[in-house]
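Q: Given only this backbone (368 positions), what sequence would you predict?
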């Protein structure tokens, strides 16, 4: 075998070949989907791809890993597009192992099938590391950390440290050659799909601001893998499906409150009665949310059933509601009539004011 020149990933090319083929009546942009779970029904040599729905306005360089372009979010799908990947397809990234007739076969550094040869630290395929001089201090990678996720795709990392080759102890980094320091190793792990579980979206708005309403939300059964959620049939999710409908704003609506009517404003005739009208909420706090159309009246007319008399002297009028009387005769006795001499003419008496009684009715009419 001869190593292949640099070119696009072979598995990615096989996935993208289905970009123009509708899957469940929808066109997708496909990329390889890997799993390191050997018990997974989609083995390393089955062509399993993950796809993002294609839209006409999608840009050609939109990143499928982002879940959508142009600010949109899409549900990714994972599908088996072929029973077997083409012969020569790598079983997984970074490995020489390849698929042959649907089976993952081990490939050694000598590029032979089922070979166990590996490159030693001297860069020799199948060597034992004795073909090169080795300094006392050397770089080594620490053991991999725990995977950051138990399923759905996580990462584990190894960092470079400087070690004493004889004792195996970790020493100061200055003792190792900086130019030979390897980069930290970050590899994917636990890429198998997580068990499906329920995902609920945010609640929608309540149908009423008070007095009892309802709100709804969408609830899906989803698989999550590599931070991508895939919608599946509800039957795959265990447990009780979360409620998609809920009661909301059960508190009483603000309402109008009134005090008792006051007494009539007059002691006779017609007047007014008043009362206080306030809008209060369910906590009896003042509110501005009561419907104005249903606001009760704060005043009303009232009648005592008593006609109001009044007096007028000159141009002075007595106000309605105040009971006034004026004597019909002068209250003081008249002066005595002087004796007349025989033959004396009658002189006119001195003029004087004589009062009258008046009555004012509710319609404003004055009757003497």
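A: Predicted residues:
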């Amino acid at each position: 075998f001869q190593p292949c020149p640099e070119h696009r990933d072979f598995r990615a090319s096989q996935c993208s070949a289905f970009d123009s083929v509708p899957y469940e009546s929808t066109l997708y942009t496909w990329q390889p989907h890997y799993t390191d779970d050997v018990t997974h029904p989609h083995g390393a040599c089955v062509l399993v791809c993950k796809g993002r729905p294609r839209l006409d306005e999608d840009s050609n360089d939109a990143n499928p890993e982002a879940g959508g372009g142009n600010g949109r979010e899409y549900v990714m799908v994972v599908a088996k597009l072929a029973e077997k990947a083409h012969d020569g397809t790598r079983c997984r990234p970074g490995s020489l192992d390849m698929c042959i007739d649907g089976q993952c076969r081990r490939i050694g550094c000598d590029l032979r099938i089922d070979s166990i040869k590996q490159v030693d630290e001297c860069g020799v395929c199948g060597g034992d590391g004795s073909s090169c001089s080795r300094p006392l201090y050397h770089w080594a990678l620490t053991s991999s950390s725990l995977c950051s996720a138990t399923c759905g795709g996580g990462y584990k990392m190894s960092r470079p440290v400087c070690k004493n080759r004889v004792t195996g102890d970790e020493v100061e980094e200055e003792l190792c050659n900086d130019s030979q320091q390897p980069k930290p190793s970050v590899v994917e792990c636990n890429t198998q799909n997580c068990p499906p579980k329920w995902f609920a979206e945010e609640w929608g708005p309540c149908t009423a601001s008070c007095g009892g309403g309802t709100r709804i939300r969408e609830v899906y059964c989803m698989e999550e893998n590599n931070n991508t959620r895939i919608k599946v049939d509800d039957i795959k999710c265990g447990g009780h499906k979360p409620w998609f409908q809920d009661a909301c704003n059960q508190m009483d609506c603000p309402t109008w409150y009134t005090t008792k009517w006051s007494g009539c404003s007059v002691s006779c005739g017609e007047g007014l009665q008043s009362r206080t009208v306030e809008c209060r909420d369910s906590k009896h706090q003042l509110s501005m949310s009561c419907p104005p159309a249903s606001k009760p009246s704060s005043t009303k007319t009232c009648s005592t059933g008593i006609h109001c008399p009044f007096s007028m002297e000159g141009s002075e009028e007595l106000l309605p509601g105040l009971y006034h009387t004026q004597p019909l005769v002068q209250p003081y006795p008249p002066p005595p009539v002087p004796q007349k001499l025989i033959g004396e003419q009658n002189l006119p008496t001195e003029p004087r004011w004589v009062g009258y009684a008046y009555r004012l009715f509710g319609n404003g009419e004055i009757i003497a």
